[in-house]
Amino acid sequence: MTEYPNPDYYFKVEYGKLEMSFLEINGLDATSNGTKASNIELRKGLCPNNSLFESLILSNFSRGLDKKIHVKTLKITLMNTNREAIRIWKCKDSYPITCNISNYETESGYCVIDRLIFVYTYLTRKL
């Protein structure tokens, strides 16, 4: 039986000025013209525990249906162990629709994100 090495990588995610790291991402599906847009699901993430996370992510959930949703480009970069970019995806006009936080501790300086789901209009890829 052939053994494959365990890949050492992670996903760096940028949303506005906020930068997060995730171990799993689902939904990076696109057609050649970028018209197919499924939801992006980010799993097992770490985010700095500060008001920037609350203002960029959680504020969209507390706006209510009569308020404008703020959309941004969600940039996802697959990074290797040397912190070099392997692939880059950009999800245009994205905003979060689901956020599950398992651990929100001020002492550690980070919150653990179980699941964060974004919708977007179209997807581009580099590298």
How would you describe what is shown here?
- The protein is mainly beta and 127 residues long.
- The chain has one domain (9-126).
- The chain contains one helix and seven strands.
- The protein has one helix at 51-56, and strands at residues 9-15, 18-26, 40-48, 72-80, 85-104, 110-119, 122-126.
- The protein has a six-stranded antiparallel β-barrel with strand order 1-2-3-6-5-4.
- Strand 1 and strand 2 form a beta hairpin.
- The radius of gyration is 15 Å and the shape is globular.
- The model has no long low-confidence stretch (mean pLDDT 80).
Topology pattern, helix = H, strand = E: EEEHEEEE
Regarding quaternary structure, what we see is single chain
Instruction: Name the shape in a single word.
Output: globular
What portion of residues is helical?
Answer: under 10%
Helical segment tally? 1
- Radius of gyration, in angstroms, nearest whole number: 15 Å
Average pLDDT metric: 80
Supply the helix-strand structural class. Answer: mainly beta
User: How far is it from the N-terminal to the C-terminal residue, by CA?
Assistant: 32 Å
Order of strands across the main sheet: 1-2-3-6-5-4
Number of domains: 1
% residues in beta strands: over 45%
Q: Could you list the spans in which at least 5 consecutive residues all have pLDDT below 50?
A: none
**Biggest beta-sheet profile:** 6 strands, antiparallel, barrel
Please report the total strand number as a whole number: 7
